[in-house]
Amino acid sequence: MTMFSIVTDTSANLDSAYLKAHDVTVVPFTFLVGDEERTCIDTAAFDGAAYYNAMRTGTSVRTSQVTPQRYIEHLRPLLEGGNDVLYIGMSSGISGSFSSASMAAKELRKEFPTRTLLLVDTLSASLGEGLLAMRAVDCREQGFTLEETASLLDRLRHAMCQVFTVEDLKYLRATGRISNIKAALAAVLHIKPILKGDVEGKIVCAEKVRGRKRSIETLAAQYNEYVRSADAQTIGIAHADCPEEAEQLGKLLCRYNPPKRILTVCYEPVTGAHVGPGTLALFFLGDGSFRKCEQ
User: Fold this and answer.
1) CA 224 to each of CA 165, 175, 243, 245, 257: distance values in angstroms, whole numbers, following the listed order
2) Which of 52, 91, 174, 188 could form a disulfide with 277 if both were Cys (CB 3.0 to 4.6 A apart)?
3) Mean pLDDT, the chain, as a whole number?
4) Are 135 and 168 in a shared domain?
């Protein structure tokens, strides 16, 4: 087996059992609930219901960009141990954390000139990132080299479709994704945006529908239109404390075009802080035009 270290971060939304079983290192992200700073490494141990209920009741939740030093702290021991490293990170289009990882890598390459350290900007978050990290694990176990794995992920990241809907627009409004006026009108008219990741990994509005039921149906319809080889891939569903609707979405996917497997998780706290409770997201490999097409 070709060995190299695989590193990802909290945003990948992968649980500790999988990470431990496949020897994947996680760079933890921090967030603030009120004035209390917390760090999330194991998303399976994360109490999503309590976290998103706190947001619903008005508790302030904030995130901050990961510093280069934190990446150095987690990458240096692997390099010191004689390992080459592949880091699979959160989209640079929605966070400055990948920039911090790049700065850390530049410093570490000088410190360890005989080692290889490659970074992949997944252009995704949550399970969009996580599914690519899982693919890297599969590649390593199949004997791919680090360079071959990074090259494959560089291609697949453009085919990773991420589409989601939110329950309340105020969280997007707070992060500047939508104006106060648009958010107020949408609330009155019960309009739900269908959002997606574009070619730069930024979040854009693909379309707008009226009502929660219709928004969930639209996610499934997007999957049906753009998914490729569904029966050969794991599909990701992430929810921000709306498990029943996640289950409903999964049933719709199976009705349209049954995937090999559906991996359903509660949204990790860092990305979840920006989209808010009730968010429902879908991740799958599909037609690359999904990221650039006008809906």
Assistant:
1) 16, 30, 21, 18, 6
2) 52
3) 92
4) no
Is the pLDDT at 167 greater than 60, yes or no?
yes
Could you say which of 156, 183, 209 is where a domain stops? Answer: 156
- Residues 9-47: pLDDT tens digits? 999 999 999 999 999 999 999 999 999 999 987 888 899
What are the angstrom distances between the C-alpha of 251 and each of 132, 245, 282?
Answer: 23, 10, 13
- Are 76 and 145 part of one and the same domain? yes
Q: If you search the block for the tokens 């969280």, which residue do you land on?
A: 171
Q: How confident is the model at residue 177 (pLDDT cuts 50, 70, 90)?
A: very low
Burial readout 5-14 (b: 16 or more C-beta within 10 A, e: otherwise): bbbbbbbbbb
Task: Examine the domain organization and report whether 100 and 131 are in the same domain.
Answer: yes
Report how far residue 152's alpha carbon sits from residue 149's, in angstroms, rounded to the nearest whole number. Answer: 5
Question: Is the Cα torsion angle 149, 143, 282, 13 positive or negative in sign?
Answer: negative
The last residue of a domain, from among 101, 126, 156 = 156
- pTM of the full structure: 0.94
Kindly report the backbone phi and psi dihedral angles of residue 7, in degrees, each rounded to the nearest multiple of 5, phi listed first.
-130, 135
Residues 177 and 136 in one domain: no
Model confidence at 184, pLDDT cuts 50, 70, 90, reads: very low
Write the CB contacts of 106 (distance below 8 Å, at least 6 apart in sequence): none
CATH number at residue 23: 3.40.50.10170
Which domain does 101 fall in, by range?
Answer: 5-156
Q: If you average pLDDT over residues 238-265, what whole number do you get?
A: 98
**Residue 109 and residue 235 in one domain:** no
CATH classification of the domain holding 190:
3.30.1180.10
Let me know if 111 is exposed, middle or buried by CB neighbors in 10 A (0-12, 13-18, 19+). Answer: exposed
Share of the chain above pLDDT 90, in %: 80
